[in-house]
Amino acid sequence: MTARTLPAHDAATWGPALDEAVDVIANGGLVVLPTDTVYGIGADAFSPPAVQALLDAKGRGRQMPPPVLIADVRTLDGLATDVPAHARLLAEAFWPGGLTLIVRAQPSLAWDLGETHGTVALRVPDHATARALLKRTGPMAVSSANRTGEEAALTAAEAHRMLGDSVRVYLDAGDSPGQVASTIVDATGPRLQVVRQGAITLEDLNTIAPVHGTDGRLPAAAPEAPDAPEAGAAG
């Protein structure tokens, strides 16, 4: 089926485009959506065939599972377990925004994102179109809208050039505002550590909680982060 590119700039007029995108996701198809960082290719996170189609479209194997985008920080505890208190502080400070947190996935979830080893990478995008879609679809597996090895798409047209008719609907909201991928922090180990530097700097992270860089070190002049709340505190 030939892909459709639909305008999704304005909440006053994006209704038909979102209706079509929601229908595609509900039926196991792929959608390209704008985010605050770069354009993403998305699928129903709870549909293994749809997630596999996403990986195939990108030319990526199961050893590189996609992150999951959610509409609100309150969804965190429905998808993750044993979230460290400092990771909660980061989520509260930087969501919605350019922070992806790798956390332990709820073991009861009926999904197959790939070889996750019991983890999931979660993010709340700071983009009105993306969040409006997510509020209707629920959690979506979303990866950058490009073939593996190519530059991330900053427009719907760039995504279409790389992904073509493997995607049913391209939501076009103009140029990506951020143009830099999210910063990824691994919160599954004994300490928080950046595994990919992106939109949020290590120094900014450390104003909220102690986070080690990709080299395993804290910033030389990291400000003193506040104490974490007691375990089990509300997120």
Automatic annotation (TrEMBL):
GO cellular component terms given for this protein: cytoplasm
Keywords carried by this UniProt record: ATP-binding, Cytoplasm, Nucleotide-binding, Nucleotidyltransferase, Transferase, tRNA processing
Alphabetized GO MF terms: ATP binding; double-stranded RNA binding; L-threonylcarbamoyladenylate synthase; tRNA binding
Entry-linked SUPFAM superfamilies: YrdC/RibB
Every YrdC-like domain range: 15-200
Primary location: cytoplasm
InterPro entries, per database record: DHBP_synth_RibB-like_a/b_dom, Sua5-like_dom, TC-AMP_synthase_SUA5
Compartments, record wording: Cytoplasm
Stated name of the protein: L-threonylcarbamoyladenylate synthase
Organism: Cellulomonas gelida
